[in-house]
Request: fold
Amino acid sequence: IDTLIADSVVLVLGPVGTFTFSPDKGCNPLTVRFIANSNNSENFTWDFGDGTVVTTSQSNIVHTYTKDMNVTPILLLGTTLPDGSFCQLPATNLTGNVVVSGTTTVSINPNVITLQQGNFTSVVPAVNFSGPYISIWSPAQGLDCPNCADVVITSTGVDITYTLTVIDTSLGGCTAHDSIKVIEPPCKENFTIPNV
Reply:
């Protein structure tokens, strides 16, 4: 029932509803799907909390957050009353906040090294994460610890490109990757020619 008449008083029910969204946390950039469930709504004014406000007739919408933030989205449900005036009321947020964390990065420098047969070198990548993370090197051949960020690479006799994948476990699996190529020359830099 949209309208109730009793003793010459007209009561028009305003818009009511709720909304949810998913995911509610993740790495920057984060794309979130918002879904409204409402009665008596003609339009939806979404305030995503990042300075973006969108009014639409669609009850479902997607928004991408591009900055680190912790925000509470707001939805205003709108309808036109019988006297022609416009009414907006807030919907109930059933999910809570959107938490967008920093850009996840990993960098290995230099990204190409020469390693003589029988030698080894340490690699210490620059890892930029906001929370706890795990490291996975691939392939594991020639590495002292394939599940550590910092590794010692021992010569294997062949050229190998190693890839480091770092997974931020606090945000549901946000990842970053970088690689290093290890070149093993076929001959040593110093050698002697025997007297003939």
Notes: The chain has a mean pLDDT of 87. The CA atoms of residues 13 and 190 lie 90 Å apart. The two ends are 108 Å apart (CA to CA).
